[in-house]
Amino acid sequence: MTSRGRILVINPNSNEAVTAAIDAAARPFRFADGPEIACVTLSEGPFGVESQKDADSVTMPLRRLVDEATDVDAFVIACYSDPGLQVCREAGRGPVFGIGECAVATALARGDRFGVLAIGRRSIARHMRSLRQTGAIGRLAGERSLDMSVAQTASGEGTLHRMIEVGRVLIEQDGADVLILGCAGMARHRPALEQTLGVPMIDPTQAALAMSVGTLLAARGVSPIE
Amino acid sequence: MTSRGRILVINPNSNEAVTAAIDAAARPFRFADGPEIACVTLSEGPFGVESQKDADSVTMPLRRLVDEATDVDAFVIACYSDPGLQVCREAGRGPVFGIGECAVATALARGDRFGVLAIGRRSIARHMRSLRQTGAIGRLAGERSLDMSVAQTASGEGTLHRMIEVGRVLIEQDGADVLILGCAGMARHRPALEQTLGVPMIDPTQAALAMSVGTLLAARGVSPIE
Amino acid sequence: MTSRGRILVINPNSNEAVTAAIDAAARPFRFADGPEIACVTLSEGPFGVESQKDADSVTMPLRRLVDEATDVDAFVIACYSDPGLQVCREAGRGPVFGIGECAVATALARGDRFGVLAIGRRSIARHMRSLRQTGAIGRLAGERSLDMSVAQTASGEGTLHRMIEVGRVLIEQDGADVLILGCAGMARHRPALEQTLGVPMIDPTQAALAMSVGTLLAARGVSPIE
Amino acid sequence: MTSRGRILVINPNSNEAVTAAIDAAARPFRFADGPEIACVTLSEGPFGVESQKDADSVTMPLRRLVDEATDVDAFVIACYSDPGLQVCREAGRGPVFGIGECAVATALARGDRFGVLAIGRRSIARHMRSLRQTGAIGRLAGERSLDMSVAQTASGEGTLHRMIEVGRVLIEQDGADVLILGCAGMARHRPALEQTLGVPMIDPTQAALAMSVGTLLAARGVSPIE
Amino acid sequence: MTSRGRILVINPNSNEAVTAAIDAAARPFRFADGPEIACVTLSEGPFGVESQKDADSVTMPLRRLVDEATDVDAFVIACYSDPGLQVCREAGRGPVFGIGECAVATALARGDRFGVLAIGRRSIARHMRSLRQTGAIGRLAGERSLDMSVAQTASGEGTLHRMIEVGRVLIEQDGADVLILGCAGMARHRPALEQTLGVPMIDPTQAALAMSVGTLLAARGVSPIE
Amino acid sequence: MTSRGRILVINPNSNEAVTAAIDAAARPFRFADGPEIACVTLSEGPFGVESQKDADSVTMPLRRLVDEATDVDAFVIACYSDPGLQVCREAGRGPVFGIGECAVATALARGDRFGVLAIGRRSIARHMRSLRQTGAIGRLAGERSLDMSVAQTASGEGTLHRMIEVGRVLIEQDGADVLILGCAGMARHRPALEQTLGVPMIDPTQAALAMSVGTLLAARGVSPIE
């Protein structure tokens, strides 16, 4: 491990604006002595991961990036669909965290039944397959789509308003008591959503950063009790 | 929230040595600008939480402690059985993390099937009931007892040797690829176990600290991207 | 065992009117040679068990009551949330039946999918956690709230009408073919509800009495076949 | 309902000795004012229900018996495989209890994980299919065969010894904390097994009698509280 | 095995028109060298299998038919409720396929979540019990009734229109991406439904024929690679 | 659809000997008027799919092959790990069958609990993740490794002997009553294994061929009943 430890957060799409938003989400997790957190864009990635093809197209490039990384102590794959998670773990270069998996795990420790806000409908079946694989699908209250394009979600006010609207349905109709933002790069809306909706709101990138930072801190060991 | 944020870690048993070990586990999670982490002993607690009576005896004292706490932004209940978790959440004084729940959630994001090292046999049925409640019991490879007293586990070498022995059975016979230390106060053995056994080893206190620190950091919000 | 056997039914709230209603539900279960059935009020209990705090506040008093009981062959905890069930079992003073657990078990033997009538919304999440723990949540058609106060439910006509209304939704929309009255002390409405709704209606106290009386009768043994 | 209520317990096999043993198991459930309990033999039944053919051969005769019964308020099908349970319920002549279903339901209210003692291996797959249908298979610790013929089990000492032996394996290796006798007519061994093995031992006929007697008693209604 | 192999498809109801429709569904599965496929009517069967009594009334006649069959290499029970499946398998006369089980199995390999079109409401609870037994109920999007009589479904246009209507609800509201025709003898509507609804549409008889033909072809063995 | 219909079976590894064995498994499924079955090798594939990297490396080449295929009515991906299944389905070029998924689905229709013979240990965790995703993992008796290299399995006698040995453990210890050959290209051992072990033995390629042939035959439609 490097002295402070170093986390590489990989945005698997090639949209630099998303990487910048991920980097912003990471800012509160940077400390003087804490692990370094670098956010990079997968240049081979599609502009957004919306289809299964998009997701599968990045698995081997992600693996190569992981294989070639030097001075990295933990990896975060910053796409809610967790593309390439297993193949990157297999590389044996250090812990690999998928933000989707970390968000669901964190939601299990914050409430009873979780709801997910998805950008579009197409992703929901893909997320459901992942969730069945986790074995925790019994805790899902529901996943609902914002029915927005990535461009729309990037623009501001309208997005927040729509998120609140869909979040209310997840809480009131589906019975969710904790919500997950089902994509990377929306962390700036997290505090407002949490305050308005009154339930814990999980940003998946930050959930993964909490776990990866925690893993590197724990790796520093515990000095004997004097 | 206080300026840095403050986490109160409560050891529900009255054994100060365990609180000291919890405090040692917390040390790597303390940073200049990071949340303050205070570890306290529940004076009304039993000397160890071994029976259901021990667990149930601390729920109301824990609630009182939470109700009366001032300047606390998040709570951690530092006993693997998560006594009082729901009643403390109900207090509405801030997020409450149970180290058992956090350890299982973290294990789900580190491997495929998790194993648990329990101090004694009596706790296993209690843990199984909790685990059925999480809905994630399908990911459990197995839980096995060290068959040691708390006094024995506190003493060193012998404990580590026994943990390695039982950990190997969980990995080789039960198929675990990630392990959880099923009690508080054993974090000092974590690095050696992880290195010897070759699978991620989760200390539950540290898993809860990662999540609670992450929650407070995320609460700081994300400044707009310039 | 005492000659006839003796069952202690404990109302964990301090509302004597509820104890009286429980005692009324027990009347048909009293026979000349059958087990004695005594109904007592937990004086330390809250006036009603509505919150998690209410539920957790009675676990230790229940345990003490069980520990100190003499000439008791089986215990019934007469609150649908089954507070203190595990800790009272651990006392080793005889079988302990929780009316919530017994009601669900009985419903499994009466129909295909069960519905639950809850007094208020607050209790539902607590019941869901218990139900996930039983492993039988796949048989739940739904749980719906009467949205009444305990005072209102105690008053008569209006309660029955509301129960019929909510029961119909559980049957027609949720697909329940057996219903559970999700609280103690409502047994007097059971026959009318069953007749009006046309599906088996389970009173939890009576479900627990059936099992506890049965357990004591079975304990008398079976004389050899002549 | 007849004045006291009447329960018809049907032994679906034509072995009168088994009916006599069932009748013996019913004896403690007969009271001065309690429901009458009549035990009858299905004359068309096979000598024992060992195969699926045996089980399926009795469904229509059981239905006819139920259709033609007069003055019966509840039915018990006294074979652990619960043959004809659904078709007899469909007759709409009153509640129908299957002893297998009642035994499992009762076990859920007595312990955490249940074990089943089966007479022979052939029945286990059939029982597993039923158990998957109940949705409660997650609570099964294991089912193990005595590997005895019905003739052998009828004879005494040897049976008890073998039951203790197999029961110990279910408890110690499989983790059961409550056991079910997986056939009708063995109730006379129940008390000795319970005492020797130290866990609750459920006789399925008695479990069904407890529920059916309870159902008829509850049907008497609850007089208003004076 | 006979030289080509022979499959006996049994319609368990005595409605010859249904047998003719089953035979029509089988036509595309008949080939010059392929297995012979004979469709027969169970003369003892009811005119339609609508109740549990109907279903249970055919199990023993089906077993006799299987026991007495000569020159048959595989059996298909052509009723969506799979009556007599286990007892016919037990006969040991060759593989026995239930069209309900085969339809569900095939749906698992064609989509993510399946919907079922049932003729009437009465059958749904029966199908749900079967589905819980398969262990694959987590993949069910929903089952909805056409609310038609068998006579109505036999008549044409109106049936197709109603199927499309209910199919749309299963897709749009329940989230199904593959549909099953929940009865035998409707295969003629399959292509039009598939084209109109845009998701794979499974006819259960054809699903069972695919598996049974495949089983007989596989039984021919694989000559060594030259 | 081409007149007869055409199935493209793709071996995702570049080992031509495996393609030849797959082609041999397909031979019994070729008929005069039946669908054409072409078996091709994915030239970009690794020599064998043993790691997650191997599996992920073929997903995009498989999608390209599917995208560019002409005159193909159904696709079969002939690797037990089902690489690229979702992304190939998304192409919208026709039904895509994964041999792993088809083998499990077929096993559900042949027995109660299935066992899987894996070539090596590394694949088992990968298969388990897939199986959890199917939702049918409750029907798994066990998966056990032959602990052989692909080269060894290709050689004959030794392989069969080892398969019988491991198959017996799956049946006798794990309780399987139907077995799956957990890789492509072993169909030649199927009949001998089935005969020796006495339970249905599923070759996954043949399971997928049965379903894909059936799908194309069903697509021919059903002429109206004259």
Topology readout:
The structure is a homohexamer of 226-residue chains.
Chain A: E1 6-11, H1 16-26, E2 36-41, H2 52-57, H3 59-68, E3 74-77, H4 85-90, E4 96-98, H5 99-108, E5 114-118, H6 122-134, E6 140-145, H7 150-154, H8 157-172, E7 178-181, H9 190-197, E8 201-202, H10 204-219
Parallel strand pairs in A: 1-2, 1-3, 3-4, 5-6, 5-7, 7-8
Detailed description of the structure:
6 copies of one chain form a homohexamer. Chain A is globular and about 50 Å long. The first copy, chain A, has 2 domains: 107 residues, 3-Layer(aba) Sandwich (Rossmann fold), CATH 3.40.50.12500; 103 residues, Rossmann fold, CATH 3.40.50.12500. Chain A contains 10 helices and 8 strands. The first copy, chain A, is an alpha/beta fold. The longest helix of chain A has 16 residues.
- Determine and state the CATH class of the largest domain in chain A: Alpha Beta
Q: Low-confidence stretches of chain A at least 5 residues in length (pLDDT < 50)?
A: none
Number of helices of chain A: 10
Portion of residues within helices of chain A: 40-55%
Cα distance spanning the termini of chain A: 26 Å
Number of strands of chain A: 8
Instruction: Spell the H/E element sequence of chain A.
Output: EHEHHEHEHEHEHHEHEH
Task: Name the assembly state.
Answer: homohexamer
CATH architecture of the largest domain in chain A: 3-Layer(aba) Sandwich
Q: Give the CA-based shape of chain A.
A: globular
Which chains make the largest contact?
A: A-B, 52 and 52 residues
How would you sum up the major sheet of chain A? 4 strands, parallel
Mean pLDDT of chain A: 93
Beta-strand percentage range of chain A? 15-25%
Radius of gyration of chain A: 17 Å
